[in-house]
Write a structure and sequence with these properties.
With about 80 residues, this protein is mainly beta. Helices cover about 0% and strands about 35% of the residues. Strand 3 and strand 4 (about 30-35) form a beta hairpin.
Length: about 80
């Protein structure tokens, strides 16, 4: 999540740190909440931001179990890098 802090844009990262957990994004009129939750829906940790300050929310797909994942050195289009 990229947020305008007044002195520039700062990135905050919420990840599903263990197997079976997921990240949920909830939006309301003036607040955006990103939470890591367990299989049963219990929140483990969360981050809340004013919607007016949020510049972008970047979501990555779950790893498919294959050898290539995030940061594997592939190009921006998913193909091999040049």
């Amino acid at each position: 999540m990229l947020v305008d802090t007044g002195n520039g844009v700062r990135g905050f990262e919420v990840v599903a740190s263990r197997s079976g957990r997921r990240v949920e994004v909830t939006t309301s009129r003036n607040m955006i909440e990103v939470a890591e939750v367990t299989r049963t829906g219990q929140p483990v940790r969360s981050a809340r931001f004013l919607a007016a300050r949020v510049v972008a929310i970047v979501e990555y797909p779950a790893a498919d179990g294959g050898p290539r994942g995030r940061g594997s050195g592939s190009g921006p289009d998913g193909g091999p890098s040049a």
